Amino acid sequence: MEAWGLQLTVPSTYTLLESGGESHAPPITGSLVIAVPSASLRASTENFPKFEISFTRSVTPKPCDVAVPSNNKSYSFFFKRNQKHKSSRNQNSPHATPPPEPNVETLVQYDLCHAPDEIDPQEGENETWLKFNFYLPIPSNIPPTTETILGSVSYAITATVTPSTIASTRILKDTQQIKVSRRVVSEQTRHIRQYPGEKVLTELSLIPNQLYSDSPEEMKVAYSLEWVAHSTIAKGARDMEVKYVVGKELKWKVEETVKYLSISRGGNPQREAVTTTCKEQRVRQLCEGKQKGHWIATGGLQGGDHTIEIPFDVNIPAKAKAADGIDLSSYLCHHQEKVCNCSPTDITGVIVEHNLLLEVVTGQDTFDEATGRLVDRRPRMKAFNAIFPLSVRDFIRIIRSTPSTLLVDKDHTRLTIHTAAVQNVSEGLYMHMCDNSMKDFPSEVTVLEDVEPETFIGFCEYVYTGAYVTPEFTSTEYNEDGLCLETQAAGGI
User: 389 forms bridges with which residues in the sheet?
Assistant: First the structure.
């Protein structure tokens, strides 16, 4: 049987969810429609063409003459100098540099082997449309679609139709680009630093702020931070004197490191044998800030609070064009060890890291313990410097509680909702699995025949994927147990 036409339909966006260091990847739902001669369909309903669906990732290096945006004044001097040198060298070349070729890797590939889900004869045209629905499993460790100063990461789904007869050699292909995003559950992070020979112990807490639809468009990522110094009170050189460490100035900056790597992966059983070669690396500053003050503990030698607390905010502007963080694990084998048949592979990848460089300048005040009188003041004594990893992601915040709503779709698939929100949905319902166990089914049941524009969506224990989600949150809904999901911007799960 020969196919005359092919149409692949898949969502334009796809979202992975990351929580507690684990990623959850629901399958992509799609459909494949082919046109076949009606006569051949009447003659045989078994010799359907062969269908192959593949999910590919492309890593494309940036041309070396691409200039850095001039409106971002926070790029380091070395980075600007290096870019200027490369640009002038390429401009003097008599031959234009051809665009670099992408490195394409097939992540998922499988054949459709089932009968058509819909058969639509076209009257008077001697052709019949056959529709095949499919679910495409997606690795959970893949990086998001990203554009960086050294290269880009993109994804595509391709359908290939091969005739079932040798006489016909016409092969049809249809490729659709798909944007992969990654949403990370917002969680507090703490870092502790101990300095050699120093009594003071410092701690930094970071909380990603929620960016809502009414947040300024010029904001990429926002953090609320607090720097805390412990053991800041000590006995002075003389009796009845007490020394206090005083915070005077806090300075910070955020740097982005992008690496373009060559990655060699060993095949099974050497699947963990991975070697990397850095082809190019760029470091640039995204933003900076500082604040001055007089932060001092309120306790004394005999008790009370011995800590200094300095709260501050870190806001990465959208104009900095910060890329989402990507680590090496995003390019490693995602199969389970017992079922892995991967061959040794050489690929390329883009790695993105972000760091917060923090400096806190402290002074020292000495007081008479009996009278409280200031005896001595030294404005600048020490500077506490440290570098902390900073996650630049699309964050969401989840308030968890026990399941309370049971949904049953039109095919009577049971779904237990853990988290719910109001979201605009074009058609169908999309659920994400976060727990493989089915337990404690509540009594409330809703049959979903037609999904309205405002529909509950969230994590569930079983997965049902209908049609496609238009990812735009409009409001937040709470159930009777206080269950809710909040997202920071349009373009979500």
Answer: 355
287: left (phi over 0), alpha (psi -120 to 50) or beta: beta
Instruction: Please compute the mean of the pLDDT values over residues 190-215 and round it to a whole number.
Output: 84
Inter-CA distances, 393 with 151, 187, 199, Å: 18, 12, 35
Q: Give the Cα separation of 135 and 129 in Å (integer).
A: 20
Q: Which helix (H) or strand (E) holds 77?
A: helix 77-91
Residues 6 or more apart in contact with residue 81 via CB below 8 angstroms? none
**Beta partners for residue 61, in sequence order:** 151
Residue 105's identity, in one-letter code, is E
The predicted-structure confidence for 369-414, as pLDDT tens digits, reads as follows 888 889 999 988 899 999 999 999 887 765 443 333 333 333 333 3
Encode pLDDT of 308-348 as tens digits.
Answer: 999 999 999 888 999 999 999 888 876 555 555 666 788 99
What is the length of the chain? 493
Taking only the tens place, the pLDDT of each residue in 260-277 is 999 987 765 544 678 899
Residues 257, 186: Cα–Cα separation, whole Å = 23
Residue showing tokens 């004394």: 300
Q: Name 114's Cβ contacts closer than 8 Å, sequence gap at least 6.
A: 132
Ordered structural domains, the chain, with CATH:
5-64+102-183 (2.60.40.640), 186-256+283-323+356-395 (2.60.40), 398-465 (no CATH)
Partners of 308 in the beta sheet? 229
Q: What predicted TM-score, i.e. pTM, was given to this entire model?
A: 0.70
Q: What is the DSSP letter of 435?
A: -
Dist. CA 178–CA 304, nearest whole Å:
57
In sequence order, what are the residues at sequence separation of 6 or more whose Cβ sits closer than 8 angstroms to the Cβ of residue 349?
59, 143, 153, 260, 261, 263, 326, 328, 330, 331
Mean pLDDT of the chain: 72
- Three-state DSSP state, 385: strand
In 3-state terms, the chain is what percent helix, strand and coil (to 5)? 5, 55, 40
Q: What average pLDDT does range 26-32 have in this prediction?
A: 90
* Residues 488 and 392 sit within 8 Å (Cβ to Cβ): no
Q: Give the strands of the sheet with 28-37, arranged side by side.
A: 5-9, 28-37, 127-136, 118-122
Q: What per-residue confidence (pLDDT) applies to 361?
A: 95
pLDDT greater than 90 at residue 304: no
Token digits of residue 146: 């990203």
Residue with tokens 């001595």: 376
**Helix, coil or strand: residue 41:** helix
Higher-pLDDT residue of 425 and 10 is 10
* Residue that the structure tokens 């030294």 belong to: 378
pLDDT attached to residue 178: 95
**Backbone phi, then psi, for 337, in 5-degree steps?**
-60, -35
